Amino acid sequence: MATVSESKKACAVNPLKMSQPLGACYAFMGVDRCMPMMHGSQGCTSFGLVLLVRHFKEAIPLQTTAMNEVSTILGGLENIEQALLNIKKRANPALIAIASTGLTETKGDDVDGFLKLIERKHGETLAGTRIVYVSTPDYVGAFEDGWGKAVLALVEAFAEPVAARNPRQVNLLPGCHLTPADIDELREIVEAFGLEAVVAPDLSGSLDGHIPETFTPTTLGGTTLDALSSMGASIATIAIGTRMTAAAMALEDRAGVPFRVFDRLTGLGAVDALIQHLAELSGNPVPAKYRRQRGQLQDAMLDAHFWIGGRRFAIGAEPDLLHTLAHTAHEMGAEVCAAVTTTQSPVLAGLPCEDVLIGDLEDLETRARAGRAEILVTHSHGRQAAARLGIPLLRTGLPMFDRLGAAHVLTVGYRGTRELITQWANALLEAEHAAGPQDWPLPPESVAAAQGSACGSGCGCGSAMRADSNLS
Hints:
With about 475 residues, the protein is α/β, with parallel strands linked by helices.
């Protein structure tokens, strides 16, 4: 059991965490024809927009209510009204998803009340566009909290009970730590058992890096509103990450769909549990390709444990991602000597380390140095810390702006686990000192001859050294 504590520093130095509204908007980007919008100043949206553009190297749809000093004091009704009408006129999205920020939360804007007034006034103009609002003040919580609240808001807005269930349909509720490639892999696994997956939200449809045939100002793909409405017809819900428990419970309460939460899907035992669950849901045997992938993972674990076993890892990540990485490293025989995260979560107490700190990257660097860490695992903002520590950095999570292919990083399933531990082992292998000619000690007589030739006493030691070199 790990002890969870929180940093009491007066300020964050090289912050690890990102804000709740950004996490919520990131989730909304997994809905087809959606326009996420932050209710706050232009700067609140601009910083988040730049971060996502640098991570994905893609155009990111994100709007703002552009609050200023006057509108903040008087209230944001007019700003929200104007923003909704402009977005409807120019983009005509299927969904406008609003996330609040610390600015408007501090003022205390009654956004739910504003939306009712706007609906009564402009109902005909806004027809055909759904509006969802989620409260995400950025002075509490972190990125993962915002994602969880957004998915919960989608479930509460669209999931409805149905008279008859689809015996082949299951819901997938992915956590914010899963990449578009991870979601694609999970969908492929589900479909291999003869099932259909409704993924909410589905970043693999919108942020997987594809080029659309025509320009669209909204999201390029993802879960449709019809698919969200059909979640109540599923026979089961599979939630990935503890943060998704609330959304899975809400879906069960609203539509009676039973759920199971997998705290991670990286690691041999964790993937085995998913495969067994899908076999039970579908009544079909495990496909042969997953039996083969399991064997490949076992072989990779045997190969990699020589470099990972006994090594000291320092990890900084959102709670669900930290849980995944720490347990996978522990299962490979590594020691987690430093663990830093962003927000409270039930999974933190069960981490395989002595303590976990809710802090920043300075805290991670300090603890990594004290624990003599041999590898640093965090996002791209940890690169300076890794350079100062003189250890390799394994970039994971968001943002990853100094490498290409962030959307295609795979860490779930048998294949993803194999890729992850191989990447760890290769980084440690590359960091090992490669022996060269300068590492081989000279014979004692050669050392003595070399010292004598430099003494200038005319004792003949230089002749002896020349004779030795002739013999060689």
